[in-house]
Design brief:
The structure holds two protein chains of two kinds.
Chain A (H helix, E strand, L loop, with lengths): L2 H17 L1 H11 L4 H14 L1 H4 L4 H15 L4 H15 L6 H19 L9 H12 L4 H13 L24 H19 L2
Helix pairs in contact in A: 1-3, 1-10, 2-3, 2-10, 3-5, 5-6, 6-7, 7-8, 8-9, 8-10, 9-10
Chain B lengths: L6 E6 L2 H15 L5 E5 L10 H10 L6 E5 L2 H12 L3 H4 L2 E4 L3 H13 L4 H13 L5
Parallel strand pairs in B: 1-2, 1-3, 3-4
Helix pairs in contact in B: 1-5, 2-3, 5-6
Classes of the chains: A mainly alpha, B alpha/beta.
Chain lengths: 200, 135
Amino acid sequence: MDAKDIRLLIDTLADRIIAASDELTALDQAIGDGDHGINMKRGFEAAKAEAQAMAAGDLPAALHKLGMTLVMKIGGASGPLYGTLFMALAKAMPPDPDRAQLASALASAIAAVKARGKSEVGQKTMLDVLDPVYRALAAGVDAEGIRSAAREAAKATIPLKATRGRASFLGERSIGHMDPGARSSEIMVGAVLDALEQRS
Amino acid sequence: MTSSNVGIVIVSHSKDVARGAAEMVRQMVGPEVPLAHCGGDPGGGLGTSVESIMAAIAEAWSEKGVAVLVDLGGAETNSEMAIEMLPADRRDRVVICNAPIVEGAVMAATESSAGSSLAAVRSTAEELYAGSIVP
């Protein structure tokens, strides 16, 4: 990936998350502390401001810097969680990954997020989207299939009861709402795929 | 100059809670325990900031280590991240106590003021959760 493509990737990620800020906040008001959209927006606005510098190196270097920025700027628990995701991807990825390398890097990154959040799939978190996306990626599903796997997976968090994170305080009352972290992960997956497809 | 007592760091989502808890600690144990606190996200709202936590750990640094007291989940996750980002020679000397933030900070600081080790400070704070006043 050259600097232009890396820039496109970071800008697309940032623009989509910033645009979804109100929606993410509304989801988080239902079952969390209502700051997911605001926090993510702050993190990705900072990322956008630094996008040019991030794109100066190769893809892993850019993802590492993006992760660091999110850790420092987001504020809520999603800072370390998304920061860890991108930093772990960076660590496990060659500069120009093929699909298999991307899948294997995502597997490492998911393991790192699990360790950071002390959580597993099925607890109504971002992992409930990232894991099915990994499986679709590893199984050779096309971009549209991966998008729909992410969409369905985010939707599938609605009936789940949260057992990690702030929503777990609500217990049964967390049932019936989509997890905000699952939704932000779905948005990011869509953004990455769109950016990759727009590449010249 | 670094103190011969274990440092205490208080990390709350709220700047006011962090400051209030630190005041209580200061009043009870006096100035001989290195103490720092932080609260609020990078935008000034409720939340926690890795950068502020790292700064607080540096402020309360002691060669004997630092015990960190946190409130809700994000404070713990952000504190873990902050600890991992410390220089390698400091990382192993910072622990997060599984204890209620106010009572834990006071107990930890009291233990620290007696010149105890980091492990002893942590275990005194964590005994609170073994008691009956909190779950």
